[in-house]
Design a protein that fits this description.
- The chain is mainly beta.
- The chain is built from one helix and nine strands; from the N terminus they run βββββββαββ.
- Strands 1-2-3-4-9-8-7-6 form an eight-stranded antiparallel β-barrel.
- A hairpin with a 6-residue loop joins β8 and β9.
């Protein structure tokens, strides 16, 4: 891995009102304990096939502990569980643009702490989704709607063979 590789996870966040969303967290520095950039998504980032565009809301930075954490969220804000993890190669990082290539660890997606793969698949955490198989890289371009907006769009691009 080169020095731009950063840990990334997707957490399913079940909230007390019965709804859920996905929190996509990206370590923006390689240093252990670095804050995580966070986005709220309706569609999990690890399931975006090329050409797919989704909306994302930027959340406040999260603590690095969320790269490994599963369980209740403080303040009675629900419960999170990891549905995917991987490595993000940060290609471009500017205030209004983030381009990364992610290699999702699909063999472990939703299977942390000894969960069985068949249980993960039955929960909708398929290892093959949208034509992506194994650890195929996913090229994601995140663009801020405007200078002061928390709204972004995430575009899954065709990925060059690497």
């Amino acid at each position: 891995m080169n020095n731009t590789m950063r840990r990334t996870v997707v957490l399913r966040h079940d909230v007390p009102n019965g709804s859920f969303h996905f929190d996509w967290l990206i370590a923006m520095r390689a240093a252990e304990g670095a804050e995580l950039r966070a986005f709220r998504l309706d569609t999990p980032a690890h399931r975006l096939p090329p050409g797919k565009i989704i909306a994302a809301e930027q959340l406040p930075d999260h603590r690095a502990a969320y790269l490994r954490y599963e369980g209740p969220v403080s303040g009675d804000r629900g419960h999170v569980r990891r549905v995917a993890s991987g490595w993000a190669d940060v290609r471009c990082e500017r205030p209004n643009l983030l381009e990364i290539v992610v290699r999702w660890d699909v063999a472990r997606a939703g299977c942390d702490r000894g969960r069985r793969a068949d249980r993960a698949a039955s929960a909708g955490w398929d290892a093959v989704q949208g034509g992506l198989q194994g650890n195929d890289p996913v090229h994601l371009r995140c663009e801020r709607a405007s200078e002061d907006s928390l709204l972004w769009r995430v575009v899954a691009l065709e990925t060059d063979a690497q």
